[in-house]
């Protein structure tokens, strides 16, 4: 893809990193490797993923050409437009809420991903006891 879109070879490693949460990929100037988020590939498909790869390759090639490779640099913005890369990664669907709590006094509900110790925590509005729904 690097030779096809940029006319230059990619000489380092590219790998999946499933720990990425808010970004489509990362470029590491220290050793030149690229990390990509597999969740975006599975969610949005090949075309969006190819545009994410182009974005990271813009960072890569501009860094090794000693040009502005950061997001705010005009060299980066120009090259990104030329190769039709994504400026921002699409949002990743969030995890669903696992626990629902309700205040026994005022009825306020709270959605949480983790369990809450109801003997230790209380309602933020009226300081009433919480119950797991």
Automatic annotation (TrEMBL):
Highest taxon above the source species: Bacteria
Domain annotation SprT-like: ranges: 1-133
SMART domains per UniProt: SprT
Pfam families to which the protein is assigned, alphabetical: SprT-like, Zn_ribbon_SprT
InterPro entries hit by this protein: SprT-like_domain (IPR006640), SprT_Zn_ribbon (IPR035240)
Entry-linked NCBIfam families: PRK04351.1
Name of protein: SprT-like protein
């Amino acid at each position: 893809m690097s030779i096809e879109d940029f006319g230059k070879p990619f000489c380092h490693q590219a790998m999946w990193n499933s720990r990425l949460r808010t970004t489509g990929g990362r470029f590491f100037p220290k050793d030149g490797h690229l990390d990509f988020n597999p969740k975006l590939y599975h969610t949005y498909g090949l075309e969006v993923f190819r545009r994410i790869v182009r974005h990271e390759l813009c960072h890569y090639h501009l860094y090794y050409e000693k040009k502005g490779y950061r997001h705010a640099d005009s060299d980066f913005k120009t090259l990104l437009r030329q190769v039709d890369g994504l400026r921002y990664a699409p949002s990743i669907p969030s995890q669903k809420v696992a626990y629902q709590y309700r205040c026994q006094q005022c009825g306020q509900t709270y959605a949480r991903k983790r369990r809450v110790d109801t003997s230790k925590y209380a309602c933020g509005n009226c300081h009433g006891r919480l119950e797991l729904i």
